[in-house]
């Protein structure tokens, strides 16, 4: 992967970057799920331990004896979804992904359904289905005669209901059967184990959701094991070159992770996948997020964006003033953002990882 820059508006590109990156060493040794326990990366880029992330070492937190009022954003899934929607409105996230779907997905899915009359697709954390439907339309186009089963694992009832509305309004979904499961990725795995099922899939995707599982390597390994012999696993995460990396490397230990989320970027995946001997391709997608409203006191959308950036429920009202001051200052710096025409554009570049069966 080269050091793809990110594109603020007005620069020459929209979506531009992609390319073959690497493969795991053939026959390399066993995967150690403990190697990167659900983690943020430490200051030197090494995985940090959960205890370190949760505050012991952080000078900005109150002493352990004083309970912090900060709660993880996922403790209120409705507010999480609300903040995600504002994030989508102010960012080019889905547009960047759409560029990938147009330019690269046809090659990725070129052989997943060869010789099959039914193609099984599993979406983990499918949200309101915007990206899912784009992916399905490419699979539909490549395999016009096949029936497609699309199963969605998604814990938010609100997201599922938006997804269903979108499907009801779409006109190009012939022969695609949808099934929604209101559960997390971990719950899906437990349910399958309890039912002693190992249903296989031709295409599995996890778009911007791996932050929310308990054990990232074990989750990737589990879902990879469900791939059919020609299947593919697509993972999208924030890029290791994004503003997220800068912000979270410095402040992950100050944010309330509460065992509900962690920081991981596409930059963490190669080590994990290499140690499992898996082959993969990486693509870098430039994207930005307009965070100007975060700097206007009392701006509701700005507050929701700050929640999303810090994974903290009501960050503005619950963060200690010194932490808030530092985070606001950090968000304007070049490691996180670019200031153009009086607006602050946070570097929201993403990494796409396509794992071979
Ligand atoms: N893939 C969609 C949504 C990404 S937002 C898109 O890119 O637009 C992350 C999604 O993951 C949310 O819809 C959230 O409800 C869901 N989610 C949160 N925790 C999860 C978990 N443990 N397992 C599966 N999905 C989860
Ligand atoms: N920590 C959430 C990062 C993200 N999710 C970006 C979607 N886009």
Total beta-strand segments:
13
Strand order of the largest sheet: 1-8-13-7-6-3-4-5
Q: How many domain units?
A: 1
What gross morphology would you assign?
globular
Pfam family, one: Methyltransf_23
Region (Disordered): 1-52
Keywords: Methyltransferase, S-adenosyl-L-methionine, Transferase
Subunit structure: Monomer.
Q: Could you please describe the fold and organization of this structure?
A:
With 357 residues, the protein is α/β, with parallel strands linked by helices. It contains 13 helices and 13 strands. It has helices spanning 50-53, 77-90, 93-103, 105-108, 130-142, 157-169, 185-194, 216-224, 243-251, 269-275, 300-310, 315-318, 321-332; strands at residues 19-23, 71-72, 118-124, 147-153, 176-181, 201-207, 227-238, 279-285, 288-290, 312-313, 337-340, 343-347, 350-355. The strands form 3 sheets. Strands 1-8-13-7-6-3-4-5 form an 8-stranded mixed β-sheet, with helices on both faces. Helix 5 links the parallel strand 3 (118-124) and strand 4 (147-153). The protein is globular, with a radius of gyration of 20 Å. Mean pLDDT is 84; it is low at 1-65. Bound molecules: S-adenosyl-L-homocysteine and histamine (HSM). The site of S-adenosyl-L-homocysteine (SAH) has 19 residues, from helix 5. Residues 84, 124-127, 130-131, 153-156, 159, 184-185, 207-209, 212-213 line the site of S-adenosyl-L-homocysteine (SAH).
List the helices and strands and how they pair.
Layout: E1 19-23, H1 50-53, E2 71-72, H2 77-90, H3 93-103, H4 105-108, E3 118-124, H5 130-142, E4 147-153, H6 157-169, E5 176-181, H7 185-194, E6 201-207, H8 216-224, E7 227-238, H9 243-251, H10 269-275, E8 279-285, E9 288-290, H11 300-310, E10 312-313, H12 315-318, H13 321-332, E11 337-340, E12 343-347, E13 350-355
Parallel strand pairs: 3-4, 3-6, 4-5, 6-7
Antiparallel strand pairs: 1-8, 2-10, 7-13, 8-13, 9-12, 11-12
Helix pairs in contact: 2-11, 3-5
The structure holds S-adenosyl-L-homocysteine and histamine.
S-adenosyl-L-homocysteine (SAH) binds at residues 84, 124-127, 130-131, 153-156, 159, 184-185, 207-209, 212-213.
């Amino acid at each position: 992967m080269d050091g793809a820059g990110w594109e603020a508006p007005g620069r020459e590109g929209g979506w531009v970057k992609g390319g073959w990156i690497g493969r795991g060493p053939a026959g390399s040794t066993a995967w150690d799920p403990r190697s990167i326990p659900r983690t943020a990366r430490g200051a030197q880029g090494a995985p940090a331990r959960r205890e370190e992330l949760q505050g012991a070492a952080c000078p900005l937190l109150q002493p352990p004896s004083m309970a912090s009022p900060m709660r993880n954003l996922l403790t209120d899934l409705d507010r999480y979804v609300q903040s995600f929607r504002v994030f989508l409105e102010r960012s080019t996230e889905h547009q960047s992904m759409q560029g990938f779907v147009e330019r690269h997905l046809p090659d990725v899915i070129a052989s997943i359904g060869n010789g099959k009359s039914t193609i099984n697709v599993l979406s983990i954390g499918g949200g309101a289905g915007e990206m899912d439907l784009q992916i399905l339309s490419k699979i539909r186009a490549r395999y016009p005669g096949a029936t497609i089963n699309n199963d969605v694992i998604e814990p938010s009832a609100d997201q599922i209901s938006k997804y269903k509305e979108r499907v009801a309004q779409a006109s190009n979904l012939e022969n695609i059967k949808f099934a929604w499961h209101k559960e997390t990725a971990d719950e899906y795995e437990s349910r399958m184990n309890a039912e002693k099922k190992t249903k296989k899939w031709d295409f599995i995707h996890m778009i911007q959701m791996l932050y929310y599982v308990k054990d990232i390597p074990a989750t990737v390994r589990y879902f990879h094991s469900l791939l059919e012999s020609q299947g593919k696993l697509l993972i999208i995460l924030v890029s290791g070159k994004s503003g997220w990396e800068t912000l979270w490397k410095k402040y992950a230990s100050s944010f309330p992770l509460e065992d509900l989320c962690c920081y991981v970027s596409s930059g963490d995946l190669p080590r994990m996948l290499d140690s499992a001997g898996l082959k993969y391709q990486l693509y870098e997608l430039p994207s930005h997020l307009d965070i100007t409203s975060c700097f206007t006191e009392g701006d509701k959308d700005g507050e929701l964006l700050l929640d999303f950036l810090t994974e903290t429920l009501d960050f503005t009202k619950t963060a200690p003033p010194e932490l808030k001051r530092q985070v606001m200052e950090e968000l304007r710096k070049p490691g996180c953002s670019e200031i153009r025409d009086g607006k602050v554009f946070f570097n929201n570049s993403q990494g796409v990882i396509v794992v071979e069966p």
